[in-house]
Amino acid sequence: MKLLFDFFPVVLFFIVYKMHDDPHQGFIVATAAIIAATVAQVLVLWLRERRVEKMHLVVLALVMIFGGITLIFDDEIYLKWKPTAVNWLFALVFLGSEFIGGKSVVRRLMESKVKLPGPVWIRLNASWVIFFAVCGALNLYVVYNFDTDTWVDFKLFGLMGLTLVFILGQGVYMARHMPKEEGAG
Hints:
0% strand; mainly alpha; globular
């Protein structure tokens, strides 16, 4: 359910965009919709939990900046850059966490639920760095080599699909490295 809630603004963007015959007009209206949906998402989180994860605040800020510039200049390119900015920012944060703070982001998020050897945490974090960097580059490739319709489809299905496959792969990798329970086997 959390995953669906996290992707709600992107799904709404897709739906609003697809409702318009004119791709540019659809993109502009969908940009306003994703800004409103992201603001609503953060407000719902705040009202429900009295806190908001940093990731949601970062995404909100980037949606407001890139979406706002898109609306002001009536130019799609700015919002199309947002997934790259988000992915590359996350890549930098995950990379930096290996050297600052004593524990990587991945380890901090999951260590209370999953026990893994130290080197496995390092490889998991590095794989997230690479994943985010590749997704950011892949977004730019689609932005500059395909039309807006293709980019909108890629934004929802391509990036979400890649993320789900990557997370499943991470789960398989972690399962292989979890300590065996005493008496099991």
